């Protein structure tokens, strides 16, 4: 009997313990539930737009009615707070003080700071005033704001990017070695002598086809652009000058190419003792104060014929004569074909390089002489 009572008591005590634990747990849940929904307690919810623009420091709550709370917006680089979207008047105070009279749901709106609208935020932008629409690099600089070679010409205008420090340049950023106003980029003659700077043409050369210099009109310039040939601006003697030594071969006077006229003339004078020949007139000329004139070779005369309109124009402007006037129309070269014939050019036939000199008897009396010289 005693044992039964003891066992029954133990069972009863265990059941009572379970009852009390369950009761206490339930009371705690009820109290907790009641606290969440206590009248006059409010919560705060804040979002950020754009998501990566920054963050907001705040206390979610709950907050008792009438409590003042603070919202502090923390913008990331290149952003600033633009507005709190729950405030219709556009309030941008930061930190913002709010009195909790209800739940608060708001969005902190941030604005990307890019005053020149080049896509690079101001805090990262090395060039803050990029002209609108220009492409920029990662530092926010356009070509108009850069000068990579430090020559004083912005990259968008610099046609010679890589100019060495200290070089004289023009407005295109290119070196102008001779200072004639044309950069080496376009200057065909970049080493024009200082005394000739005012005489250069559009290509930067003071020696050019049609220039009046060195006693005549330039009709040929060699590859150096420093040397060439000029034609006299008037004829020598009257119509009726012979080539000379008809029936006799003049040794070596067969040079055809440009550059052989001077030697041809010397060969004629050495082998032909006749006076008043075409070569004699040319070699003894002192036109325009020069004494080294000679009779042009076949190709030199051909070149003069190709450019005779240019030579005519410049010659007449400087007191000279055209190739075709009165009875003058045909001109001797210094190139002989054989003992009886030499080459001449008829300036009334063809023109503009449409025909070349032809051979004619050396004794022919109706041709003229126009000397040339080299410089």
Task: Summarize the helices and strands and which ones pair or pack.
Layout: H1 2-36, E1 41-42, E2 44-49, E3 54-57, E4 63-64, E5 67-75, E6 79-84, E7 96-100, E8 104-112, E9 212-213, E10 216-221, E11 228-231, H2 261-271, H3 278-283, H4 298-306, H5 308-317, E12 330-336, E13 341-346, E14 358-361, E15 372-374
Parallel strand pairs: 2-8
Antiparallel strand pairs: 1-4, 3-5, 5-7, 6-8, 9-10, 10-11, 11-15, 12-13, 13-14
Sheet/helix structural class: alpha+beta
Give the N-to-C terminal Cα separation.
152 Å
Number of strands: 15
* Tally of separate helices: 5
**How many domain modules?**
4
Over all CA atoms, what is the radius of gyration? 51 Å
- Percentage of helical residues? 10-25%
Which regions have little confidence, pLDDT < 50, spanning 5+ residues?
4-8, 28-37
Percent of residues in beta strands? 15-25%
Q: How are the strands of the largest sheet arranged? A: 9-10-11-15
Shape: rod-shaped
Q: Profile the largest sheet.
A: 4 strands, antiparallel
The ordered string of helix (H) and strand (E) elements is: HEEEEEEEEEEEHHHHEEEE
Rounded average pLDDT? 88
């Amino acid at each position: 009997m005693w044992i039964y009572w003891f066992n029954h008591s133990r069972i009863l005590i265990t059941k009572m313990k379970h009852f009390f634990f369950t009761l206490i747990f339930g009371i705690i849940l009820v109290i907790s539930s009641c606290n969440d929904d206590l009248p006059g307690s409010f919560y705060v919810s804040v979002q950020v737009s754009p998501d990566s623009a920054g963050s907001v420091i705040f206390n979610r709550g709950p907050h008792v009615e009438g409590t003042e709370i603070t919202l502090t917006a923390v913008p990331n680089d290149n952003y600033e707070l633009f507005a709190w979207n729950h405030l219709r008047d556009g309030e941008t105070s930061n930190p913002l003080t709010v009195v909790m009279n209800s739940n608060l749901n708001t969005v902190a709106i941030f604005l990307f700071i890019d005053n020149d609208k080049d896509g690079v935020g101001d805090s990262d932008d090395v060039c803050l005033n990029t002209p609108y629409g220009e492409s920029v690099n990662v530092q926010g600089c356009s070509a108009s704001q850069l000068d990579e070679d430090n020559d004083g010409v912005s990259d968008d205008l610099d046609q010679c990017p890589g100019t060495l420090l200290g070089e004289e340049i023009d407005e295109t950023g290119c070196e102008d070695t001779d200072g004639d106003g044309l950069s080496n980029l376009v200057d065909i003659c970049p080493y024009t002598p200082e005394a000739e700077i005012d005489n250069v043409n559009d290509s930067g050369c003071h020696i050019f086809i049609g220039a009046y210099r060195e006693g005549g009109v330039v009709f040929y310039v060699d590859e150096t652009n420093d040397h060439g040939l000029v034609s006299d601006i008037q004829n020598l003697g009257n119509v009726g000058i012979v080539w000379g030594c008809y029936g006799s071969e003049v040794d070596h006077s067969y040079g055809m190419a440009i550059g052989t006229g001077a030697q041809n003339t010397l060969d004629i004078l050495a082998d032909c003792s006749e006076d008043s020949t075409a070569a004699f007139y040319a070699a003894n000329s002192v036109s325009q104060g020069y004494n080294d004139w000679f009779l042009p070779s076949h190709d030199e005369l051909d070149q003069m014929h190709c450019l005779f309109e240019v030579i005519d124009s410049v010659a007449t402007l400087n007191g000279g004569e055209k190739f075709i006037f009165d009875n003058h129309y045909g001109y001797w070269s210094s190139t002989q074909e054989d003992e009886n014939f030499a080459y001449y050019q008829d300036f009334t036939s063809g023109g503009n390089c449409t025909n070349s000199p032809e051979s004619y008897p050396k004794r022919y009396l109706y041709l003229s002489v126009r000397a040339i010289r080299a410089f």
